[in-house]
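[job 4417] fold queue: 2 targets
>>> target A
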Amino acid sequence: MDVSELNVLRWLHILAMVYWLGGEWGVFQTSYNVVNRKLPLDERRRHMETAYRIDILARSGIILLLPLGIHMGHLWTVNPHGGGWLVLNWTLALAWLSLCWAAFFFRETDTGIRLTRIDEAVRFVLIPLLLLAAVSSLLGHGPFKGDPGLRWFAAKVGIYALLLVIGLKLRFIMREWTAMFRRLAAGPDAAVEATLERSIRTGRGLAYVYWIGIASVGFLGATKPF
């Protein structure tokens, strides 16, 4: 048995990927009932609650994939920045994860919506930083190694960043659910229903691209093709 640091991280990385992919599929299926006008509002709320409970695992998986990948990259020598950089990597990631869970616990309140907006703001900073790091590394300028046979890591980081863009749009849609259902609680509203259905259609279309991207990230990590 090889219970090495790398293998433990690899195991956690697989779990995070499974929760990400599986969680997104669960939310996708639940969304059909969230926007079903034929169902009573209370039942639709229950489905929305189910979607949130599934989605928090997917969100956790998304966040944890980054520090796990950066740490594994250092052990593979693709990421030359260890020591204090890894400590900072985990500290920031766990702070982000705590923010995400706080937004989940307070999701039905104004506080939850504010926390969700902060979570989204983190992504607005992180996405361009990751894209810049990926492109720079592929061009051979770091921070990750861009030598032949090692470029898969930077490509993986770049795809991950693009998936965060899609995830951000899906976060907007779920945040919109909370606001729209508050309005529906006051009585039927055709305009709100139309907004919900339109946003869900957009989200479902993006979900297919999302799954292809997640599969691509997994493929690059498993095969390291270039």
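>>> target B
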Amino acid sequence: MAEEVAEEKQSFLDKFSEVSAKIGNQVHLRSLRDGFATVMPIYILAGIAVLINNVVFPLFLTGDALANAQYWGNAITQGTLNVATIMLAGIIGYCLARNKRFKNAIACVVVGIAALCIMMPQTLSSATASISDITELTYTSTSDTTKTKTVKYDTIAKKVAPKGYQLTSVGSDNVSGAFSKTYTGTNGLFGAIIIGLVATTIFIKLSNNEKLRVNLGEGIPPAVADTFNTMFPMLITLTIFGVVAALLHALWATDLMTLINTCIAAPLKGFVNAGPWFIILVYTLANLLFCLGIHQSTISGVLAEPILTILITENMAMYAAGQTIPADHYMNMQIINTFALIGGSGCTLMLLADTFLFSKSKASKDIAKLAVLPGIFNINEPVIYGYPIVYNLPLMIPFVLIPDLFIGLTYALTCAHILAPCVVMVPWTTPVFISGFLAVGGGTAGVVAIIWQVIEFALGMLIYLPFMKVSERAQKKQMELAEQAEKDADAKAAAQTA
């Protein structure tokens, strides 16, 4: 009976691992994960710039000196967050081509970016135009509504309303010949994902059609031959997108970027932030998979992290603009990295602390000594495979449950306005306590975040402790049984020899 139960359990774990591996290896999802991993340093740089601009510089600068210093951070934001959509469309195209083993991957970058720009609106209303699109501001007197003042929007000083006047209109009814940061910045990332994947898929399929290739004969440089081989597939792909853009404009007076933001991005963000349950489910499955020896990013990296990363990049953009973070952005990637994966997946840094303080196992302490330095920087593979966590049932339980608990509690504290929302993407290797302070923008909010991480650390140690003791007793029993089996085998061999 026990053997049947063990076989059923093994069969379930094998099937779970097989399904998870298939999801993680799906080429489009894998390309999406790889694309975000590639541009992650750009988002981290943007986070550092936003933090310095809004927290560090105001500590010792004011007035014009502050504005001049903040130009540095604004320039970084302009080159990172404000063009994030364009970069991601090209990178996703490149990653998909590489994962499909398509030879001319650089051509897919061109296709992804070009298709994205084709699907953007050609005319922007003043209501949706970004700051860079605005040409003038109109103010109306607060005492006499018949009096107005119109000024050119070309300097920082003119952002301030004249005394006795209030802003009543921006720019003109329409702005043409410009891209809005609504579409090139963080709000357009879902569009970049969909258009980048679709355009690249069509282009690769057409490029594999021998009839669309141009044979220039021998002796032609490879770069020239590649260009002509992709010419017709590229022309056809971009023409298709141009036709779709024209039809959307002519029939419904809209564009694909607006449709994606309205019909896909907004509902998906709302679903993720309807509560912590979806994210908890994803990380439960991901960490359970890690306990079976398969990296958790196979699940979390394709199902949750791209959406969560988009949310934190949008938070950075709003924080840089001085806007309030809405409740539907409280759950984001930085909550996971900063408060739910302390020391890495499963929050194993707490287990190491328990090992140093309470363990009686020399082997466990030796592993802890080797694993503690990487663990401080949230790298915990030495613990997972060396302690081990893998297939160690007593330790698998807290490894899976502790991150879920911290996700739920951190989200609840943020909704209760006890914790400030995360507004800065800090490197995932940032040590605990430092990460909490930086992620919420420092200051008093940063101190509160540190206090919460201290509480989390103590709570994690408390939860891990009894499971660690059970694991050590089980390991000791296994060693005793192994030694006894070896003695029995030696005695049996001696008896047979005699």
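[job 4417] complete. Note on B: The mean pLDDT is 84.
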